[in-house]
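Risk register update: the risk that structure generation would not scale has been downgraded. Supporting records follow, first protein first.
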Amino acid sequence: MLSDRLRCCVPGCAHSAARVTVPECVEVMCEAHYALASPAAQARRARYEDRLRALQQIWNDDAYFDRLVASGKYLKMCSVLSLASENAERAWGDIKDEVLGAAAASRDVGEKVGAAA
């Protein structure tokens, strides 16, 4: 059975998001954990997501699509769209790696403090 909520991808986090709010997502990250990513990584992800979204809107425009096919640039647009999608996925992976690393480091510090006490 498919849940109507998606849990934060950081192990041990109890936060979740409604699937209705983010239907295209397979993974989500709560705001608290997302804030652990560097501003540069967040900005890079935002740029790549904006670029992908803009290209998808163009792709979904029937008039533009017909002109694209007529001009013979269909395969070029496919390549551009594929690259934009890969860049957005890579940027999400970079965010996730940073956050998981920071979360693991904070858990390790907490365990060491608890063990020392």
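Supporting record for the second protein:
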Amino acid sequence: MSNFANPTLAAVLDENPEIRSFIYQQIVDFERYVTPQTMISVAVKDPLKLRSKLEAEGQNISKKKLAKMYRISITLKEDDTQLQEEGLHEDIFEAVKLAKQKLIRKLEAIQDQIISHQERVEQINQALSNTNIH
């Protein structure tokens, strides 16, 4: 891909327009979770800055191998709310997919909590409205 140790997203996209198309395809999957006001950003971050975190988690990836990896961050932001996830992989396409999958799982968990809460409120309201006097 790029000759840079930690390329910027602009440099990667300039070098390979397929990546831009792929990112746009992946972003489409967020449509059901966002509003028109939601800002979606994709960034390439320095994978070496994860080294101590990965070691603490028991993942001992050599500095040389880590330097060859792509660390992709996808962020959804609206007003004061922000959700972000990252993907780390030797292949930039896989790194984008991993970040997207993590963010989708987070969004689904939030959606499940909201739906579950709404269902409980509806059940309580229904129970309160069906009071029978014997």
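The radius of gyration is 21 Å. On this basis the risk owner (M.S.) recommends closing the item.
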